[in-house]
Specification:
Nucleotidyltransferase, domain 5, 6 helices, 18% strand
């Protein structure tokens, strides 16, 4: 059997929280017509599909890089680190991976053939599935952080640089989970 490992991330653009990555190997016969880029799916649909992916995938793994790692090594390197660790979570279980495809234009070093595919999250089913798992995982982390730091309303904007988020940062300063290397937009 040929195993294509698709990888995608969620959370490169936010001002707070981690960047998450997921790796997924889908089986032959998976209902790929259900999938799409996570950004084009409603929250409800993503949650439904997450269950299907986790139940039917040959393998899946989610990893993340914290806001402190992002500040220390930069968002690109932290994203690639999370992607590499999600891949390694599958690879070390012994699945005979034939090829790795990563959404975007950068890859990480691994022993399997690896390729970056721009807009892969709208074309390649295993990347679409990874996109869904990464997005849902990150959203849950941000909802948990909202309970710990309610002033910043992370559950509503998930740390993205919305006008409301910028206003809250202006009112309260940065939370302990904000990325210090990112500039908060001005609300004026």
């Amino acid at each position: 059997m040929n195993y294509l490992c698709g990888i995608d991330e969620a959370g490169r653009g936010p001002l707070a929280g981690p960047v998450c990555a997921a790796a997924v190997i889908l089986p032959a016969g998976f209902p790929v017509e259900l999938l799409d880029d996570s950004k084009r799916l409603s929250h409800t649909r993503r949650v439904q599909l997450e269950q299907v992916i986790k139940e039917q995938a040959v393998a899946w793994q989610v990893a993340y890089s914290s806001h402190t790692l992002i500040d220390r090594i930069n968002i690109l390197q932290a994203t690639l680190d999370a992607m590499r660790r999600s891949y390694e979570g599958i690879a070390r279980r012994g699945y005979p991976i034939d090829r790795v495809v990563v959404d975007g234009n950068r890859t990480f070093s691994c022993p399997h053939p690896i390729e970056a595919v721009v807009k892969g999250d709208s074309m390649i089913p295993s990347i679409m599935a990874a996109s869904i798992l990464a997005k849902n995982h990150r959203d849950r982390i941000m909802t948990t952080l909202d309970a710990r730091y309610p002033e910043w309303e992370f559950a509503s904007h998930k740390g993205y640089p919305t006008r409301r988020h910028a206003l809250l940062c202006e009112l309260y300063g940065l939370s302990p989970v904000h990325r210090r290397s990112f500039r908060v937009p001005s609300v004026r």
